[in-house]
Amino acid sequence: MSNDALKRAVAIGAVLALGAAPAALAAKPDDPGSQGQGHAGGHSKKGGKAVVSYVFKGTYAGAGSVDVDHGNAHVRKAGLVNTPVSFDLSSARIVVADTNADGTADANDVAANDRVVVKARLPRKDPGSQPYAAKQLVDQTHAPAS
Fold this sequence. Notes:
Radius of gyration: 28 Å
Number of strands: 6
Structural class: alpha/beta
Order of helices and strands: HEEHEEEE
Strand order of the largest sheet: 1-2-3-6-5
Shape: rod-shaped
Number of helices: 2
Low-confidence stretches: none
Strand content: 25-35%
Mean pLDDT: 84
Largest sheet: 5 strands, mixed, barrel
Helix content: 10-25%
């Protein structure tokens, strides 16, 4: 084979390889359900564990404690339904009417036996030990006026 013929064969092979590359790159993976879920356990603020929202619903028992009667899937999977759960409300956003007329709507306005929803950001598989740092507490019994 002459030098020109060899160069021509290599050039043709390169053109064919470039033509096939977009088709190979566009092929779907064997498991399309895994797309976009590669960082589930890596990026978070709680020591490398995935952090999710837990939504607790129940009655306020006083002193930051809630008798949880139901919640979202994370609450149920953690076994926190039908148990008293204590929360640290110091940095939580409290949504309640000013029931004691002191000019501010805060945790002092939430009364025992009020229906409440408490949201907390906790590690997905193991929420850790109580009290949990609450992000928000909503008093449904004494809702603020719109």
